[in-house]
Design a protein that fits this description.
- It is a single chain.
- By secondary structure, the chain is mostly beta strands.
- It is globular.
- About 0% of the residues lie in helices and about 50% in strands.
- The strands form 9 sheets. The chain has a 5-stranded mixed sheet. A 4-stranded antiparallel sheet has the order 7-8-9-10, with no helix packed on it.
- The chain is built from 1 helix and 33 strands.
């Protein structure tokens, strides 16, 4: 669903991973290894989401790692993914369930249906908080998943068609997009008290907020606009007062806060593909084009930054139907490596796995 998409800090894990490389030769298991999982969204309604594992040491990308391990397909339209503790959580939007797997092997533990009666809740994004995983759902709720029992404890009503979320202290910010309510989109953030698991207020921001990033005492909100006379923009909000503090019109795809700067990938239809770096103080441009070595990216989609190394991962969906590519740039914007996610379509989320 390319109009609504996006990053998670790296987690330290000890892995025993095996799989098939692009040429179907096995990746030899090692006591400790480092690599990345890539969630490939696939095409809506085609049941072709896949999971790629790329071994940084061997420089090999496993072809559908999840299916190789489990003997079954992942599902339809994988929208988000995170590692929390020893588990890998994958948010399946159209299939409407949460796939919980072993982080070390991607072996399935449980599929948690996200339904109300016979109605799909259409889960979108997930964030961890104190032995819980909080999941936004297009039915206007945030579900609270207990990571021990793997059951839904509670659902919290928010705004319409919520997208990304951000935890700041004991507050959860939820972007209420209203993405299915054309032409009257939502324009609010819900604020949830994580001690009581209740919504305490709504904050008015820009039209159709979808992506969030937090840092330097602020929340940064990427809004898509209305695809007509309201331009896409980024709005900054003080996390101490919950009041908007700044605004800039910019066509962004997703955004990540790192080292007191805001990294913004180019949005759909942008004239120049790449990453712009903004100052968090006033949203002015710090660096017009982060990619400094001339590396060409066709259609940026997902982005994450390794908080320890500063490596920037950018996914490229190409034409949304053929195999995508993942680029890794160092902190100076020079390409370290890239790999195809064949047969993965529309790579949208990268999670780094550390030694």
């Amino acid at each position: 669903m390319k109009k609504m998409k996006w990053t998670l800090p790296a987690m330290a894990l000890t892995l025993f991973l095996a799989g098939c490389s692009k040429d179907d030769s096995p990746i030899t298991p090692t006591p400790v290894t480092a690599g990345v999982y890539v969630l490939n969204e696939g095409n809506w309604g085609k049941n072709n989401s896949t999971l790629t594992y790329y071994d940084i040491n061997n420089k090999k990308a496993s072809t559908d790692f999840y299916e190789t391990v489990n003997g079954s397909k992942l599902g339809d339209t994988g929208n988000d993914m995170l590692i929390y503790g020893s588990k890998l959580y994958i948010v399946m939007n159209v299939s409407s369930y949460i796939e919980v797997a072993e982080a070390s092997t991607a072996k399935s533990i449980k599929k948690i249906p996200m339904v109300t009666g016979s109605d799909s809740r259409s889960p979108r994004y997930a964030v961890p908080y104190k032995n819980k995983v909080l999941i936004s759902n297009y039915d206007g709720t945030v579900a609270v998943l207990d990571t021990a029992s793997l059951t839904i404890d509670k659902s919290i009503t928010v705004g319409s068609n919520p997208e990304q979320m951000a935890v700041v202290g004991d507050k959860l910010y939820v972007a209420n997009s209203g993405g299915l309510n054309f032409p009257v989109y939502d324009s609010t953030l819900s604020v949830i008290d994580l001690n009581t698991l209740t919504e305490t207020k709504k904050i008015k921001v820009g039209t159709s907020p979808v992506k969030l990033a937090a840092g330097d005492g602020k929340l940064f909100v990427l809004c898509t606009g209305n695809y007509a006379d309201i331009a896409p923009s980024i709005v900054s909000v003080s996390t101490s007062t919950d009041e908007p503090t700044g605004h800039r019109d910019i066509n962004g795809g997703t955004l990540v806060f790192y080292n007191s700067k805001l990294f913004v990938s180019s949005g759909y239809g942008a004239t120049t593909a790449g990453i712009t770096v903004l100052k968090t103080t006033d949203l002015s441009t710090d660096t017009e084009q982060f990619i400094s070595d001339g590396t060409s990216v066709t259609t940026p989609y997902g982005m994450m930054i390794d908080g320890e190394t500063g490596d920037v991962f950018l996914t490229d969906v190409k034409d949304y139907v053929s195999s995508g590519e993942v680029f890794c740039f160092d902190k100076t914007g020079k390409k370290k490596y890239s790999f195809m996610v064949t047969p993965g379509v529309s790579p949208n989320k990268v999670v780094v796995v550390k030694k």
